[in-house]
């Protein structure tokens, strides 16, 4: 049994990740590499060093503190980290040494008891608002055994449990807990497999297959989430296709998530590259057109 999970954030008193007041648990690890991802610290399946450049005061204490000689000054005098060495670090002395708190590790292993202990004080809020816990990510179903244990251990609490998924997971390892969730937010980015691979690093074969399997079990619990990405899927043809596909599966709820670049700085903090163009946005009139197109097919649709 999986007794712990790798989690990179826990947000209490959330009202956007399902009905009522909720705690959103962000599970680390994702098989996709979407160019626009706003939570890049949730992609890798191990704790990652983040150097928050906007906080760094260049004290350089991290350089002398590191026992692995993994920190150097770069050409412009900023600390530069050998992240291959950082990946296997267990001492994390650089974190404690930084006076400006500009260094942290994204991702922490929590036991089942620790997570339950974290959410227990919120039980009155869940009960009064018909809320609960939403597992997000990353991709939560990569750690499905842990989620299964959580659901079993908290079944007497009377809380709602939902999940936000990219849809890229092993159906055989997850189908036995599908009926335990109160709702699914299921990402559907586009139906064309080659384009999907170009922008996310993978085809959508497994995503579509899993959605079809899930819809046979509980189509009424599924809300399809469509990120509206400029230059990728922001056309009327794409929106009509997605709406038609949802109707074929008996799915009646769809939400549009307009592109934003709020996670861009995280890529720099992780030492990686943000691959979307600068100054992209989604026109509000265009969103309204998409909304009308989707609703005209009989689906309930909204913009978040």
Q: Runs with pLDDT <50, length 5+? A: none
The separation of the N and C termini measures: 37 Å
The CATH superfamily of the largest domain appears as Aldolase class I
**For the record, what CATH class of the largest domain applies?**
Alpha Beta
Round the mean pLDDT to the nearest integer and report it: 95
Architecture per CATH nomenclature, i.e. the level-2 architecture of the largest domain: Alpha-Beta Barrel
Structural class: alpha/beta
Shape: globular
Round the Cα radius of gyration to an integer and report it: 21 Å
- Spell the H/E element sequence: EEEHEEHHEEHHEHEHEHHEHEHHE
Per DSSP E runs of 2 or more residues, the count of β-strands stands at 13
Characterise this structure.
The chain is of the alpha/beta class. The protein folds into two domains: 4-45 and 109-303, Aldolase class I (TIM Barrel); 48-106, Alpha-Beta Plaits (2-Layer Sandwich). Helices cover 32% and strands 23% of the residues. The protein has helices spanning 61-65, 83-87, 93-97, 112-119, 123-129, 144-153, 171-174, 193-200, 205-218, 236-249, 264-269, 284-295, and strands at residues 4-14, 22-27, 48-51, 71-73, 79-81, 103-106, 108-111, 132-137, 160-165, 183-187, 222-228, 253-258, 300-303. Strand 8, helix 6 (144-153) and strand 9 (160-165) form a beta-alpha-beta unit. The longest helix has 14 residues, at 205-218. The model has no long low-confidence stretch (mean pLDDT 95).
